[in-house]
Amino acid sequence: MADRSAGDGRTAGTVTGAAAGAESTTEIGRRVLRLRTERGLTQRQLAEPAYTAAYVSTLEAGKVRPSEAALRHLADRLGVSYEELTTGRSPRDATRLRAAVTDARRALATGAAEDAAELFAEVRDEAERLGFAEERGAALLGLGDCALETGELTVARDHFEAVERLLAGEPLPRRIPAIRGRAVAHLLAGELRYSCYLLESAIDELNASGLHDPYALLLLYTAAIAPYMDMGAHARAVRAAELALALAPSVDDPGLIARMHRGVARTLIAEGRTAEADASLAKAQELYEQLRIHTDLAHCHWMRGYVHAQDGNLERAERELRTARDMLASKRAALFTVQVEVELADVLRRRGRTADAEALLLPLLARTPAEGAADAPGEPDDAADEVGLTADRGAVHAGGAHRLLGLIADERGDAEAAEEHYCAALSLLERTGAAGDLADLCRLLGDLLRREGRLEAAMDAYRTGLGHRAAPGTTTLGPAPAEPPM
């Protein structure tokens, strides 16, 4: 990979006598002097038999432009590679940095994202100093993933965009993990259409250019399922799941395969195939347990809780959601934690424990990054206190929280509070384009207004809801992306 951020201030690559300028000549001379001194060699010992001590002295002083043959001779005598002598970058350093990235990835999988971010930052800084673009990009990608987990969505996007800039000259498949990360950040912020746009544009570009990379396509199709489902584009979500399943045999990455099974489960749930969805999640859970990827394993428990809730098995649903909540809280995955709490509150309300549900929901909407709120009774104290649900962070779940609070108020006869929460939810969800949630919310608001005798307002609410259901499986995104040759 070409590196345009080399620590010594020039583009990395082969340095020949014709290519080495005055600045690089000086740096090479200093490097030769340092390496010779470290090895206890005299200038004559380094030079012979092909060159003279005077030549080495002139070279070390930066007064001569070395030829490629001279550099290869000196590298051999100094016991280093030609690349290390000409660029200052050692293959040993590259191996060490890649091992450090692996360690940071393991820390992110099994521990807190903040701790992993410190490791990634160290790799990023050292890779930048040494001029290793590939390792620097891997560290920036890791920092973006850490920020996603902690709910710092703007920070995450900045890191992913930095990776894309760094790899701008590389083939598109190399940039796909960063594009996928940026799309997920926009999804979590509630920007569903833009998330889809990023993913579909990358898919089209891959297919149009003939770069049918199975790993890159599987990454993109798997990531597209969630925003498609949230927007009500069920047909596209199902097709993305089908293409992902077809690509899976060509990809040797158990973590990505597990993520695919999670996405496929969402489409199965929407079709009422809950037993198949649970089986798909069981496959994902088994892989995550083998890989010890705790956050994704928590997401499996989260999804299985949702499956059980859809089946009406509320006791099992609560158990799975609490497991997911506790696992995410232990990793200080703040945004994911509060999103699970919204779905847990829904189960609690359906089990008749409305006071517990309300006590869980109100702090989620009150929390800010600067000031936390007390945990609900019986809930552990953790980093979920550090982040709340807002219009630009977890907007879909923020709308869901207001919807649930509206239902609770409605059930106890407080029509004014119910309408306030429904309208707050409507405002949030209209920004996201979450079609199914919008349609259901308009129905609830219309029913409330009708009971209050406000028939014209109720009709307006129903019409709005019908608009979101008028064309099932469609979006404002335009034609679906081209499909790869399978």
UniProtKB/TrEMBL annotation:
Residues 32-85 form the HTH cro/C1-type domain. Residues 8-23 have a biased composition (Low complexity). InterPro entries: Cro/C1-type_HTH (IPR001387), Lambda_DNA-bd_dom_sf (IPR010982), TPR-like_helical_dom_sf (IPR011990), TPR_MalT (IPR041617), TPR_rpt (IPR019734). PROSITE patterns: HTH_CROC1 (PS50943). It holds the Pfam family HTH_3. Residues 307-334 form a coiled coil. Keywords: Coiled coil. Residues 1-23, 467-486 are annotated as: Disordered. It comes from the Bacteria. One of its GO terms (molecular function) is DNA binding. This is Transcriptional regulator.
